[in-house]
Amino acid sequence: MARSRGKKSENKAENIEGKTIKAHFTGEQVFSNDKEAIDLHGKSRFGEMHEGKVYYSSVEALYLIEKKKLDLYEGRKKITFDKFINTLKKKDDRIQTKYNVFKDMRNRGYIVKTALKFGAEFRVYDKGISPGEDHAKWILYPVNENSGFTWHDFSAKNRVAHSTKKNLLIGIVDEEGDVTYYEISWVRP
Fold it and tell me: What does pTM read for this prediction?
């Protein structure tokens, strides 16, 4: 098992310069059809392209808002980072933990995508690898240090990672928002 300790703001920040993206929140989805959104997707793999629009996961949108790269609107009203995260907390009480892990991994230079079809929170691509070029290296589960995590939970997560030929990565978020990672991989004797 490998352990890596993350530092909140001392990581290398991702270079995502350019014009601010105008995105729309429908209550369920965040999307943009701006040229800047399409360019950023091509460069840094933020969002998923579908029919000329870029759709963002909630944590991607939060990250881009915080980096002042995305302006989010619900109708004509601009939504701040704090208002958006509070809206998301009403549907997902784990959003802050998920966001802390996503932000830390992106700041470290990894591409992080959702992994719901794998029964996981995120899939993480090794540095230099983009989705579509190769498979993700890890299945990542964000966990708050104060939440319960049973051996049954651990075993189920490990089975999912193994069945998808990925290593299991657990990101434990402490009360300060720092993340410690534990990597679990299968070893054949």
Answer: 0.87
